[in-house]
């Protein structure tokens, strides 16, 4: 039984995705309008400029000599310290896998809203799964993201397919296979990036086992429909990712922007690339060398935009803490050790600065 109070609480926390947008056309409904002062300086979805975020070619990495590898590590370290973001190409993920998941994502979001809403967004254990979105509780307002999203992880793929296409086994199979294939490929890439990032930090463990991400990873398919007035709304509210690091595929329509000084820098979309960004756990583990930077998605008037975020999880440690290898007299430890449940509690209480509680 769901009590009245629980229901109220739920509708507070989870937005109804784009219900109002779908039923009213051609105007931005109030719930999606953001006051100018909250939006701050805006950068259009195609104002790329010289972003400075490096595009790192991982092709042939195994054949590189130590000096050439060092150069790549240094670029990764510099990018993580300055922007919290870098991009990779020739990353080893088959481009057909990318095309296939983009098609599967589009097909999912094309399904009628009533069907998608059967996958109600809720916390299961310590993770959010299903269709919808967290509201921007940071600002304690009713304002919504101009987007819809599906959180899924490997153990729940089949549940999504059978809920959305109960009578259509071909569609079930196609969706499940595309997502499973993607998760498999991204798991490999996640492990590879973990080693690259550790090397860039100058951490060369005998065995990397203890540093490897916890499974399963969490994934979010995002859909940003065209918006009649992109300057008055936001596709995905400015946020920090909580996890270890995120591997984002943004297709060929731009929209991802990263906070830099007082403004925003757009991350140029390359259909064959991934954007990689440090989350709060990498910031802690790296003792603040890697920055978990505020980022958001903006929308545009003409094109649907689909992005896929693969959230690599922090290693499965009792306590998250800076790596001892990165701490010495000149680099004092910045965070006290904490557990993941402690972090989640802190994030609920203070979503915009969840690490504050653990700073030393
Ligand atoms: C995210 C995210 C940006 C985008 O899903 O956490 O930052 O461009 N997405 O969709
Ligand atoms: Ni994010």
Automatic annotation (TrEMBL):
Keywords: Iron, Metal-binding, Oxidoreductase. GO terms for molecular function: metal ion binding; oxidoreductase activity. SUPFAM superfamilies: Clavaminate synthase-like (SSF51197). The keyword Oxidoreductase applies. Pfam families: 2OG-FeII_Oxy (PF03171), DIOX_N (PF14226). The keyword Nucleotidyltransferase does not apply. Residues 213-314 form the Fe2OG dioxygenase domain. Belongs to the iron/ascorbate-dependent oxidoreductase family. This is Gibberellin 3-oxidase-like protein. It comes from Physcomitrium patens (Spreading-leaved earth moss). The lineage of its organism: Eukaryota, Viridiplantae, Streptophyta, Embryophyta, Bryophyta. The gene is LOC112294501.
């Amino acid at each position: 039984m769901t009590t009245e109070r629980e229901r109220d609480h739920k509708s507070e926390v989870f937005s109804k995705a784009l219900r109002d947008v779908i039923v009213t056309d051609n105007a931005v409904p109030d719930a999606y309008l953001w006051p100018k002062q909250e939006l701050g300086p805006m950068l259009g979805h195609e104002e790329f400029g010289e972003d400075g975020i490096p595009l790192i070619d991982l092709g042939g990495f195994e054949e590189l000599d130590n000096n050439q590898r060092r150069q790549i590590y240094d670029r990764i370290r510099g990018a993580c310290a300055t922007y919290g973001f870098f991009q990779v190409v020739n990353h080893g993920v088959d481009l057909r896998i990318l095309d296939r998941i983009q098609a599967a994502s589009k097909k999912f979001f094309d399904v009628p809203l009533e069907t998608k809403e059967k996958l109600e967004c809720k916390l299961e254990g310590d993770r959010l799964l299903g269709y919808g979105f967290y509201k921007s509780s940071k600002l304690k307002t009713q304002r919504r993201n101009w987007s819809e999203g599906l959180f899924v992880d490997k153990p729940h793929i089949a549940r999504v397919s059978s809920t959305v296409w109960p009578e259509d086994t071909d569609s079930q199979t196609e969706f499940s296979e595309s997502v499973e294939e993607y998760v498999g490929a991204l798991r490999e890439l996640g492990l590879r990036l973990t080693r690259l990032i550790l090397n860039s930090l100058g951490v060369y463990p005998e065995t990397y086992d203890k540093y490897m991400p916890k499974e399963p990873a969490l994934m979010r398919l995002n859909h940003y429909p065209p918006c009649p007035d992109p300057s008055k709304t936001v596709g995905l509210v400015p946020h920090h990712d909580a996890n270890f690091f995120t591997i984002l595929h943004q297709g060929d329509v731009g929209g991802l922007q990263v906070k830099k000084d007082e403004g925003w820098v757009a991350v140029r979309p390359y259909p064959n690339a991934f954007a990689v960004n440090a989350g709060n756990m990498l910031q802690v583990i790296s003792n603040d060398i890697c920055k978990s930077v505020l980022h958001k998605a903006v929308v545009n008037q003409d094109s649907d935009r689909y992005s896929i975020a693969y959230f690599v999880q922090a290693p499965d440690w009792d306590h998250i803490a800076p790596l001892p290898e990165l701490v010495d007299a000149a680099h004092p430890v910045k965070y006290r050790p904490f557990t993941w449940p402690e972090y989640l509690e802190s994030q609920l209480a203070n979503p915009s600065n969840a690490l504050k509680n653990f700073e030393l």
